[in-house]
Amino acid sequence: MKLELRGITKRFGSLVANDDISLTVEPGEVHCLLGENGAGKSTLMNVLYGLSAADAGEIVVDDEPVAFSGPADAMAAGIGMVHQHFMLVPVFTVAENVMLGAEPTRGAGLLDVEATRARIREISEQYGFDVDPDAVVEHLPVGVQQRVEIIKALVRDARVLILDEPTAVLTPQETDELMGIMRQLTADGTSIVFITHKLREVRAIADRITVMRLGRVVGQAHPESTESELASLMVGRPVSLVVDAGTSDPAEVVLAVRGLTVVDDRDQLVVDDVSFDVRAGEILVVAGVQGNGQTELTEALLGLGGRVRGSVRLAGTELLGRSVREVLRAGVGFVPEDRRTDGLVGQFTVAENLVLDLYDRSPFARGPMLRHARIRSNAAERVGEFDIRAGSIDTLASTLSGGNQQKVVLARELSRPLKLLVATQPTRGLDVGSIEFVHRRIIAERDNRTPVLIVSTELDEASALADRILVMYRGSVVGIVPGDTERDVLGLMTAGYAPEQAFERAAAHPTRTGHPEYGGDGDEGEP
Amino acid sequence: MFTVLGLGALVLFGLLAPGGERSTFGISTAGDIVEIDPLGVPSRQAAILLALLCLAVAGYAFLLTARAEPVPLWLSVLFGTAFVLSFLTWAVAGETISLTGALQGSLALSVPLIFGALCGMLGERTGVINIAIEGQLLAGAFLSGVVASLLGNLWVGLIAAPLAGLLVAYLLAVFSIRYLVNQIIVGVVLNVLVLGLTNFLYGRLLSPQAGTWNSPGRFPRWKIPVLGDIPVIGPVLFDQTVIVYCMYLAVIVVHVALFHTRWGLRVRAVGEHPEAADTAGIAVNAVRFRNVLIGGAVAGFGGAYFTLGAIGVFSREMTAGAGFIALAAMILGRWKPMGAVFAALLFGFANNLQSVLGIIGSPIPSEFMLMAPYVLTIFAVAGLVGRIRPPAANGQPYIKS
Ligand SMILES: Nc1ncnc2c1ncn2[C@@H]1O[C@H](COP(=O)(O)OP(=O)(O)OP(=O)(O)O)[C@@H](O)[C@H]1O
Ligand SMILES: [Mg+2]
Asked: Where is the chain membrane-spanning (chain B) (predicted)?
């Protein structure tokens, strides 16, 4: 199926999110959309999928102009979409989610679950998915949830599949598997529109690349272009992909974690006797495949949830057993993993979100009263500094693009005096330019003699920032290694190999570059 | 998956109840409980036996939780029944009550609760909280009474009842879905509006000219052959008015529709994750609008039970909070029709007990018995809700971008 967008324009108030955009997706190709945060990629895809109506322009399918009044029309025309934030009902089973909106029935509106199960099995077989139709979606790992989304589209015979930042939440191994699936799909003639900020992936899979900036198409790029060529085309200036971390000068131990153990709601031991130090002026990166206890570790530091034992001392004072507010007051900056639920209040404005944990203190409050002028001037400053692309500081946070929501959280946490910075996946969903900026800020914080603890599943990020890297596997510390440790070794450690073994194995079997054995023990029931 | 709250609630459920039990058989005295065919039960032993059953159920529930398995509904029902029976055995020790009579009374009080709970469920499953059930019941009671009285035809009155509920629901839907006014506030306002309106009309018309305006009469009871002759169950369940038979039907229809049809799947998706439903091509607000209207009609129909089913005349504020208890029944029943039925029966039973025990003069002060259903409600809403998950998008308006 050939798909054309002609002159699509979409405005939100005075903001032009899509400005006269035209592009063509040929049958069986992977068409990459590249662009900064807020460039308008998701907006364009929402128009294409019938979720929002364009102010001008037309969509042409196989040379026939079509008009979509809702996603149902788009699906009928053969367009499927996997959203940046998954659109699955958590309490439904896989089968229920898959059939929703296009339910097979046995007359009288009675659901025919068996037919859906059969379809799911059929598709799973064809593409090598391992998906149980009767599993409840909320219990599935994200990688599998994404497969459910893809099945949802395939069941409706999608000939064009839109994938909006599908790899942002995947482990490298899951990403590789997704790439494999994409190749199979295109081999069957399905076209794919692929949005990502990871240039490595673009180079690996794209047949055609369209670059967007500030709501416009600024050009096409060749799939053979280098990553830095792509980056500068996207941002409009040269970008350094690896920030020069300079030299660090770690001093005294400020954060001392001893025997930290966390048991979750399901009585699972999720953090098992973890001990480490972070020094002033040092960045410690906690690496590992997602779901090995990193999230729970940071939440325990902050005083959130779970049953926690052990000790966490910040400059000699015990933090465990204190409330979140007290911990924040003690000077801990925290960037949570899920910005949408833990980092922002969607129905508050950007300005309000920028003072979310500072609102009750000088200079933003006088007694019980908020000082709105200060809050606004603060917001204007932060928005400029962090290049947050929002219509205005009064825009609701929920309408920001994914990357810009992340920037709001970062701007808030990084712009007050800190005694400790804890950041989980600080650059998830950010474009390369913003990653460069955020990395610089984190390094500046380090040079300011703040101890920094970063949780990242991106080995590139770990290598770029870390003075030391702590690798976690199944809740325990596999080892703590220097920041310049080779990727291969790190990859093996994230799969549970102790450092010495990992060094040996990596020396004996150097892996193909870019495909380290990352979490390769099939832990999550993947094929 | 069980949340911390769930665990807490179960500990409460498991530990508090046995505590209550011990006091029960502690106070029990020897005596007989007599039923239609005088079926004497040594009250002490019976109470102890039932209490042990309660304990066993609680223990099993605890075990299930420990194994991180959900506690099935029937277990809660069994617990509730055993608890109540044990309590009853103790309370009527040495006296005689008619079991059939007690159950009939309970069902009578439960009918509007069940209709109300179905109404609430239809709304909340799509994410719209309906506080106006009380108003819808009252409107149904009023209009059915007046219409039946004016036209001298009960059936026309019965048709008018859902229309009254529908009208109230329409207002709720328009304001809360289309104009995004807070759902709770609209609901409260509607309750006050219906109450005021019916009171006014009652004072002006129904009371002074009761002959024309307020003498609808009642539906006769229809005994179902064979089924109606079963002892105890027969007269309780199968010798009822058409409204009660419709209720049986409504419960079954709603259950099947919610969990086994395309319509139900869409309804539940809208209540759990409206964006997901939207991207699957479902018109979220249309589904919500429609369901609030259907719910209103159901509640309105249930309102007719007050006038045409039970009393035979309309009286001021005759719903007396049933709409709110219905909400509690819905929550206790975990937004499921069958669950709501059992919760409503429990409430109806407790409410009925108060009058029965008042008559026979039981050891418990009648003030306490008056409180009982409400204490039960608070327990239901506060204690047991923790492990029940309401529809995720409940109460949140959906604004399309
Ligand atoms: N509903 C809305 N109301 C107002 N503004 C909106 C709305 N949705 C999107 N925008 C704005 O449109 C612009 C483009 O957003 P979009 O989500 O398309 O960006 P994106 O290219 O997908 O970015 P990212 O890479 O961060 O996901 C942003 O400035 C955003 O704030
Ligand atoms: Mg986006």
From this structure: 46-66, 73-93, 99-121, 128-148, 154-177, 184-202, 242-259, 292-312, 318-335, 342-362, 368-386
